[in-house]
Write a structure and sequence with these properties.
alpha+beta, SH3 type barrels, 2 helices, about 45% helix, about 25% strand
């Protein structure tokens, strides 16, 4: 799906959520004066729903990989060991990080990020890695 289509769908979902929130606030208080009191509660529920949608997307990605027989293997990640790479993860929120890949064993990838004085060690599950690219220094 194209990015523009996704943005349009998210905009429509947000607009629909605002309409639902306004209707729910109107049901709670018919005069509509308490909409601002209940608004933070609705926002929290909306964020929880977005997290559930993100988790469902990760689940669909894993199911698609299993059906197609795509097994994330550490043999494919071995050329990146010892190199500075940018990894895009499809976990909750979908984040990316840049660092040196220390090792890849089983279903786990060890990565060290940060400057030499303040380095952090991360363990990433290879099921959630969407893309890995080598970064030039």
């Amino acid at each position: 799906m194209r990015l523009s289509t996704k943005i349009l769908l998210w905009f429509l979902a947000l607009a629909f959520a605002i309409v639902v929130l306004a209707a729910a606030a109107n049901l709670i208080s018919p005069d509509g004066s308490n909409f601002y009191i209940y608004n933070p509660i609705f926002i929290v529920f909306f964020v929880i729903i977005l997290g559930a949608i993100s988790s469902a997307q990760v689940f669909r990605l894993q199911r698609r990989r299993r059906r197609r027989g795509i097994q994330p293997s550490c043999e494919a990640l071995q050329p990146f060991v010892g190199k500075r790479c940018k990894i895009t993860n499809s976990g909750a929120g979908g984040f990316s990080m840049t660092g040196v890949v220390e090792s890849a064993q089983g279903k786990w990838l060890a990565m060290r990020t940060g400057k030499p004085g303040r380095q952090k060690f991360h363990m990433l599950n290879t099921d959630y890695i969407m893309r890995i690219r080598e970064k030039k220094k």
